Amino acid sequence: MDLTVPSRHPSPPFRQSSAAGLALPGPGRPPGELPPVHDALICVALPSFAVSAQHGQLTGQGLEGVYHSGRRVLSRCHLRVAGREPVTVQGRMLSADRARFVAVVRTAADPGPDPGIVVERSRDADGTERITFRSSVGRALRLPVEIALGTDLADLGAVASGRPCPEPRPTVHGSGLRWSAPDGGCATVTVNPPPKDTLASAGLLRWELELRPGAARTITIDVRSGSARTARPAGGRTGRHGLPDARAEGDDPRVEKLLRAGLGDLRALLVRDPAHPADLHPAAGVPWRCGPAPAEALWAARMALPLGTQLAATTLRTLARAQLTGPGPGAGRIPGPLRDSGPHLPPSCTGTEATLAFPVVLAEARRWGLPEQDLAQLLPAAERCLHWLRAAAGESGLLCEPGPVGLQRAETQAHAHRAALLGADLLEACGRPGADEWRDWAHALRHRFREEFWLDDRTGGRPAAARTPGGRPLPHLGGGAAHLLDTGLLAGGGFAEGLLDKVQTEQLARLLGSPAMDTGWGLRGLGAKEPGHNPFGHRSGAVRVHETAVAVTGLAAAGYDKEATSLLRGLLDAAEAFAYRLPEMYAGDQRATDSHPVPHPAACRPAAIASAAGVHLLTTVAGIRPDVPAGTVSLHPMRGAPLGALRLSGLCVAGEPFAVRVSRLGLGMVEEAAPGLQLGV
Predict the structure, then answer these.
(1) Residues 219, 195: contact at Cβ < 8 Å?
(2) Does one domain contain both 217 and 346?
(3) Does residue 300 share a domain with residue 181?
(4) On the CB side of 126, how many CA atoms lie within 13 Å of its CA?
(5) Distance CA 610, CA 575 (A)
(6) Is residue 22 part of a domain?
(7) Which of 36, 237, 35 minimizes the C-alpha distance to 128?
(8) Based on the domain organization, do 206 and 255 belong to the same domain?
(9) For residues 341 and 1, is the Cβ–Cβ distance under 8 A?
């Protein structure tokens, strides 16, 4: 929940170097409070999205409305039939970008208590809505219908802060209405069929529909922003997204639903670089984080590598264009906003995280089959990231956070260590100098980290979350420790050596699998016994899907299948409770009999890294480890087959379809692969 919102004036992505937040709260809402969205139905096809309550009426309350490029273009769409509001009996998502609402209306012609009119509303992310009326009454009806429309043309920041924005008076525009704002923004709504009567001053449209028994009539509402229709972007049903239609089948029927929902949401979150429309990258999440988020974009692209390397390539290209160049200590760094880090640590820089992730994603994309021309184009940017790392770490070899505090975070050292090892692998494979030096650097960092970041105690010890420049450790245990187990793929499909030694890794696995960290629904952001723990704290106790997915992969790679399986099953159970659209986080309450995960009222849903987590987790269960340059792919399924038999198809390795099956005994078999790709050991 690192708040950034889209501007209605597009700017080059990933150019921010400081935190971009919502507008200051006005008198309508206390400082720091956001309108709740946990029970809203959010249709997404960026840069458009629509926020609806379960009843389907758009009332203008809270965040309700249709948004395009950060501006609310429709805030009210209130339907009355025969002088009364329909009674909504169901509201649900049909896909990532469409919601459906079913309501009923009783009329004077109904002989008893059973309603004779059904009203079905289908609303798209771009605001297009179809309202269909069906009659079961035994005679023809003349049905009065009213729709009240309105908008404040407000920025999302103003809506979120609760500042009142007066609605401009509409004017009649063709078969609908038009609104204009003082800053030049405007919105139009056209309807079909045209209304019988229009009261422009009240934004009211009226019809009298002739309904025969068993017949249906439909009113279509079309919302436009400015002079052009609200564009359906990269991730919409008609857009180019470059993600294959992967499928999952198995003993656990939930795997198919998890993968399908995650794919739909990930496509809906894809946005284009305005200056380079062919390049897509994922936005962090809706509604609060549609703006630049380089670290989340890279992590989502990394977890989506089993779907092909195209998204990783376009995301890396977008980031490479934002990379700082020229002389100075910042050369090679990728800018990014600040992120709140909870009660114990100051805000962290996501730009640092993205800079360290860049060579990692490029190296792993190469293993999955990134084309040589993309690799050659992106390699110089990866080298600049490594040069920045060497300069920023200095003689100490430890990376400090920017700012006056200068903390050395354990999580940041894990990112730096992984960047050094996979960067060395990348340099060596491409015939570039420096690979041995980076392996030596990583070896020195491992030695120092094991000595200075590990805190011994009678229970077996724990890693420090951070160290001050003076060497004082900050001992609290949080979900960020999972990154110490995330090492990344190297040549031959193996994993790089981690920061911790074998004994320390075993102890960390025990800690992550304990009730203090494992809620039964996933991994807590801060241990339940730590000072400042808050189950709703987005960095102090809530379950964060990304950290849980990282922990599952790291634990499984290190051989701690019991702990990995517990987190995996907990996350899958949580996904089922959230109708398989996982939010970026939810409350870290301990699971009990017949309990359900509790949503966080301000969490982004959908969120890119949560959407991609399903792909990541299922390929972890199957143990797919490709090395396309060597012409091999190896399978290392999780022991014990935690989800029973599993089949994944429609994946992409070496640019070709890839399918794999895991039996109930945990034996893996490749069913489809690119010609010439051999099964490795």
Answers:
(1) no
(2) no
(3) no
(4) 20
(5) 10
(6) no
(7) 237
(8) no
(9) no
Give dist(CA 259, CA 255) in Å, integer.
Answer: 6
pTM (two decimals) = 0.92
d(CA 653, CA 659): 9
Q: Is 289 helix (H, G, I), strand (E, B) or coil?
A: strand
Task: Please tell me the distance from the alpha carbon of residue 422 to that of residue 329, in angstroms, as a whole number.
Answer: 23
Selection from 616, 480, 504 nearest residue 560 by Cα: 504
CA distance 398 to 279: 34
Cβ distance 417 to 479 under 8 Å?
A: no
Residue 111, domain extent: 48-229
Q: How far is CA 520 from CA 189, 439, 573, in A?
A: 47, 38, 9
Last residue of some domain: 186, 203, 229?
A: 229
- Residue 340 belongs to some domain of the structure: yes
Return the exposure string of 52-79: e unless at least 16 CB atoms fall within 10 Å of the residue's CB, then b.
Answer: bbeebbbbbebbbbbbbbbbbbbbbbbb
Q: Strand 585-586 relative to strand 624-627: parallel, antiparallel, unpaired?
A: unpaired
Along the chain (681 residues), what's the average pLDDT of each consecutive run of 10 residues?
41 34 45 84 96 95 94 96 94 97 87 87 97 90 94 91 85 91 90 92 93 92 72 46 90 97 97 92 94 93 97 97 88 92 88 97 97 97 97 90 85 97 96 96 96 94 93 94 89 80 96 97 96 94 97 96 97 97 97 94 96 97 96 95 97 97 96 92 64
Q: Is 141 helix (H, G, I), strand (E, B) or coil?
A: strand
Instruction: Examine the domain organization and report whether 203 and 331 are in the same domain.
Output: no
Partner residues linked to 93 by β-bridges: 99
Query: Are 320 and 181 found together in one domain?
Result: no
Backbone angles phi, psi at 387, to 5 degrees: -65, -40
Residue 155 CA from chain centroid, whole number: 22
Query: Do 401 and 439 belong together in one domain?
Result: yes
Q: CA 99 to CA 122: how far, in whole Å?
A: 6
- Name every residue whose Cβ is closer than 8 Å to that of residue 495 and which is 6 or more positions away in sequence: 487, 488, 489, 557
